[in-house]
Amino acid sequence: MSVTFVKEPNEDQVEALPERDLGTDPNFVTPRGLTLLEREIEAVTRAAERARAAGDKIALAMAHRDLRYWRARRATAQVVRPERDSDVVQFGHAVEVQRGAEPARTFRIVGIDEADPAAGLVSYLSPLARQLVGREEGETVRIAGAAARILAILPPVEA
């Protein structure tokens, strides 16, 4: 075989990184979520500049991939603002629930990229959020297999 057809690695080459999955669900965001997307783009842009300055091709390739992802997320973001005085749980609302004798907990229903369950921010696609959306104060839902009562629907938080 001729060496013409053999692709030998070159120190300047960086293997193509797989793209980050954008998903197929609508990209609903709260006003805060939109701000977070914009901050992420700024942070990754700075990381790309640092990688370029350092000549770190791998870090630069990763930053470029992340920039494509976050810019696509920003481009498809649909800001959703729930009614402030709604009687039913909507995207963006915080919901205070109590399960049995446990202390009450508050969960805010947010977009996919804004979700942080440990901080009480749950994606609108999560089973918990699906249980809560459309419900009213006083109703009972199932959370982790147990009955929980909705104590309050709290207004959305602006960015």
UniProtKB/TrEMBL annotation:
Domain of life per record: Bacteria
Keyword Nucleotide-binding: no
Coiled-coil ranges (or none): none
GO biological process: DNA-templated transcription elongation; regulation of DNA-templated transcription elongation
GO MF annotation list: DNA binding; RNA polymerase binding; translation elongation factor activity
Domain Transcription elongation factor GreA/GreB C-terminal span(s) in chain numbering: 86-144
The entry's keywords: Elongation factor, Protein biosynthesis
PANTHER family: TRANSCRIPTION ELONGATION FACTOR GREA, TRANSCRIPTION ELONGATION FACTOR GREB
Protein name: Transcription elongation factor
Natural source organism: Aureimonas flava
